[in-house]
């Protein structure tokens, strides 16, 4: 019988995609470290330091065959993770062992690799946000004309349409994309700054030539697929970057939470429903239950992402002078977990939006229960056109509305406001004319046109030319 006696994060075992897990995997992270050491050695060789092509070639030959067992042994002895990897890499590349990490400090590999990983992870998040937008676009266009009860303060208000409501979810995501794009445009490599950001070690290596220090950084960035480095730094890249990234992730989580919460409420009203599997069990005790568990999971995981935002804030503001090490353990947790959790949120979001079930009859029932009240302004205007006195008609409608409300709430009966008005002596509109004013489409304003205009102006530009993420069915 298989035993599982060691804690494993549910972000890996249950929630996040394989694609996102790979970005934060040891293979990817430490593979980047080795590529950064190769980029450093190549740059130093090209700028005239005594490094041979044979040494560089040997480093390149061992980019991905990392001996993790040996690294663990060396770290247990040295109590230093980066030096353990340097030594293990050197054992595999004996000709190049003496030039690995030349002039660099630990943050050369840790922070430069992190900047690359964070950019890659944001790229994946962005693609998934775009895919959710695409699915919401299809949904909004399909239901742009379907009237539904608008709610303010969770109380009946003027009518909207199902598609118009979806544009509110979409608009949040469009704003999130703008934030992601801005943050991504600011991500830079730390470069080769040395222990306190002064490049003193590199200045010494290059014989006091500052221009070669700058050229070395530019070459490293180019070799790693980045176009900029931070012009100044302490030992690390500014932890403000982490704070800004976590804020952008939190923004997406907030948008997803809003959607998930709305879906949960609408499912309780029996108007919309998230996909429900043929063999899915809603409750171990109540066999009839159809719980919105995917939307609930969206909210649950999104809450975790939002909470992690504060880690970035506290880390950024507590960095002492050129650096402290109280950021390290926190960043190992907060940054990967925020990405993994949000990745899971977006997988769920896409899954739900691809299969939302709409119940038009239930939506219509709720609309018609409340529509007589919403039609009273039109009724008042039509009554005046029919020769009635505006103030007298207003008083009649006010009194009869309260009577109908009391009947509905006190006796649990339907809304009979129109019957009451038609029976009122001297009221200028008969029942047939009153009924003709109860077409829900008369009360949705510009909802349908707003859906089309919003998608054309705001959503379609986000989709044009974008590589959409492949997000299929997920285990729920």
Number of strands: 4
Give helix % range: 55-70%
Could you give the distance between the termini? 25 Å
Mean pLDDT: 93
From the alpha-carbon coordinates, what is the Rg to the nearest angstrom? 31 Å
What does this entry look like structurally?
Strands 1-2 form a two-stranded antiparallel sheet. Helices cover 64% and strands 4% of the residues. The protein has 19 helices and 4 strands. The chain is mainly α.
What would you say about this model in short?
The protein has 476 residues and is mainly alpha-helical. The chain is built from 19 helices and four strands.
Descriptive keywords:
two-stranded antiparallel ribbon, 4% strand, mainly alpha, 476 residues, elongated, 64% helix
Question: Which secondary structure elements does this structure contain, and how are they paired or packed?
Answer:
Elements (H helix, E strand, L loop, with lengths): L9 H6 L2 H6 L2 H21 L6 H8 L7 H11 L2 H12 L13 H37 L4 E6 L2 E7 H25 L13 H6 L4 H14 L16 H29 L3 E2 L19 H25 L10 H26 L3 E2 L1 H15 L1 H10 L4 H22 L5 H7 L7 H6 L10 H17 L13
Antiparallel strand pairs: 1-2, 3-4
């Amino acid at each position: 019988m298989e035993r599982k006696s060691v804690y494993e994060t549910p972000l890996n075992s249950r929630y996040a995609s394989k694609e996102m897990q790979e970005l934060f995997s040891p293979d990817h992270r430490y593979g980047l470290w080795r590529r950064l050491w190769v980029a450093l050695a190549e740059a130093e060789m090209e700028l005239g330091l005594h490094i041979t092509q044979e040494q560089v070639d040997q480093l390149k030959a061992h980019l991905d065959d990392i001996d993790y067992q040996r690294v663990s042994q060396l770290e247990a002895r040295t109590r230093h993770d980066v030096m353990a990897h340097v030594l293990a890499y050197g054992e595999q590349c004996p000709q190049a062992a003496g030039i690995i990490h030349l002039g660099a400090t630990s943050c050369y590999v840790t922070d430069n690799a992190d900047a690359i990983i964070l950019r890659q992870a944001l790229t994946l998040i962005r693609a998934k946000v775009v895919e959710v937008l695409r699915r919401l676009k299809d949904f909004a266009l399909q239901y742009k004309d379907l009237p539904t009860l608008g709610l303010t303060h969770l109380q009946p208000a003027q009518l909207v349409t199902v598609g118009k409501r979806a544009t509110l979810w979409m608009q949040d995501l469009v704003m999130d994309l703008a934030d992601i794009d801005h943050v991504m445009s600011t991500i830079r490599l730390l470069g080769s700054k040395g222990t306190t950001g002064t490049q003193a070690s590199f200045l010494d290596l290059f014989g006091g030539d500052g221009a070669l220090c700058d050229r070395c950084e530019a070459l490293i960035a180019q070799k790693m697929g980045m176009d900029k480095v931070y012009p100044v730094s302490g030992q690390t890249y500014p932890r403000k970057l982490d704070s800004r990234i976590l804020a952008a992730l939190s923004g997406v989580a907030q948008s997803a939470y809003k959607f998930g919460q709305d879906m949960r409420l609408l499912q309780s009203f029996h108007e919309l429903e998230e996909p429900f599997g043929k063999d899915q069990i809603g409750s171990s005790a109540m066999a009839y239950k159809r719980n919105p568990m995917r939307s609930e999971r969206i909210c649950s995981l999104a809450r975790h992402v939002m909470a992690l935002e504060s880690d970035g804030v506290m880390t950024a503001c507590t960095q002492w002078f050129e650096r402290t090490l109280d950021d390290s353990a926190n960043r190992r947790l907060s940054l990967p977990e925020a990405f993994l959790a949000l990745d899971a949120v977006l997988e769920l979001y896409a899954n739900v939006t691809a299969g939302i079930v709409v119940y038009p009859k239930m939506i219509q029932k709720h609309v018609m229960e409340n529509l007589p009240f919403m039609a009273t302004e039109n009724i008042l205007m039509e009554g005046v056109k029919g020769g009635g006195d505006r103030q007298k008609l207003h008083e009649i409608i006010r009194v009869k509305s309260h009577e109908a409300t009391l009947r509905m709430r006190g006796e649990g009966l339907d809304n009979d406001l129109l019957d009451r008005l038609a029976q009122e002596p001297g009221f200028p509109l008969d029942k047939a004319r009153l009924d003709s004013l109860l077409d829900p489409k008369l009360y949705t304003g510009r909802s349908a046109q707003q859906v089309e205009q919003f998608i054309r102006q705001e959503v379609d530009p986000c989709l044009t030319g974008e590589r959409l993420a492949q997000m299929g069915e997920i285990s729920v």
